[in-house]
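Hi there, hope your week has been kind to you so far. Thanks so much in advance, here it is:
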Amino acid sequence: MAQTLHIVGGGMAGAEAAWQAANAGLDVVIHEMRPDVETFAHRTGHLAEMVCSNSFRSDDSEQNAVGLLHWEMRAAGGLIMEMADAHRLPAGGALAVDRDAFAEAVTTRLTALPNVRVEPGEIDELPGDGHWIIATGPLTSGALAEAIRAETAADQLAFFDAIAPIVYAESIDMTRAWRQSRYDKGETEEERTAYINCPMDRETYEAFIDALLAADKTEFKPGETAGYFDGCLPIEVMAERGRETLRHGPMKPVGLTNPHQPDVKPYAVVQLRRDNALGTLYNIVGFQTKMKYGAQTDVFRMIPGLEDASFARLGGIHRNTFINSPTLLDGEMRLKSRPNIRFAGQITGVEGYVESAAMGLLAGRLATAELTGRSLPPVPATTATGALVTHITGGAEAKTFQPMNVNFGLFPPVDLKGGRRNRPARYKAYTDRAKSDWLGWLAANAQNAA
């Protein structure tokens, strides 16, 4: 008789965990509070809804750690990557998707499985029995967050995450802006022109920084602190760190040539990336913000080409909840005090859609093995998935634990032979080793399941 796995949260991690477990024969119940209980960031009740960027970042599996994670999830039959590939948008070397079509497809595929049931409603306490995966993500409800805090006898850890605005493409002035991916990256013309670029001269940039610094910002509630994740800083926070910070971050002008003024090098460039398949929506890359709505429209319309911009969504800011996983979780992602409960996704302290989905994939497989009386060998730390789970379950320093994207710094050092010491050779050695070890781990999984 099939056993039941309960998953709280239908985001990237929850959806992927459900897919892995259901395809292995388990009955799966996904407990999703939306749309009954709304959040400020979500717009639909779909599973795997993307609320911030529509990008899964680099798809380069030879030179980039997140691209390697894409490769590992594809090799493991991951639903999130399959649907991302099916709804891919041009984005140079990145993997960007049509967010609505992607979420609808994930929902359709999961709910079509006869052994998957979506049960609406909020889970507001930690269950005492049964087999569970908590994958509630950064917007964990207050009641459940309080239940987790009470169980772990630890202060809730959180940082603030900010959402970038989305602009209607028809409102962008293309006599000032132009289409080009940085360094013309991409294999097709569509890829090489995936971004819209808005140039700034020095005077415009300086005025823009002044406006950013002076704009009305969202204020924090009493007792809250702004512990931002460095990979998702609001632009005004970056500007506060130095007037040139944005020019060396999301507004860097390198790898781009303005066809309207080919002999004039822009002092800074604002990039917009396509957000849907129709090409009617573009999000402003790296422009997460905590400015108030009125200030956003005033400041963003200072950008050349966006003077008459219409916004489909303005930026926002929310509290992003995560647990101190190195202290609280065992090597199989189980809560030490309640081993019937696993945690997966962003709530474990990984950062990003792909990392969250990868931890969901692993949690789903680990739960399946446990419920069917099997054991899985540890995931090799030499793989992207293994490096992440090793980091959150003990590799990180618990006292200073903060959310982390996958990166080669989490991998065991690679032995470069024959004097290959340059960065491309080193990264290729990391990814070659990871792919071999990951395929070996998947083979061991299949053998144990036979």
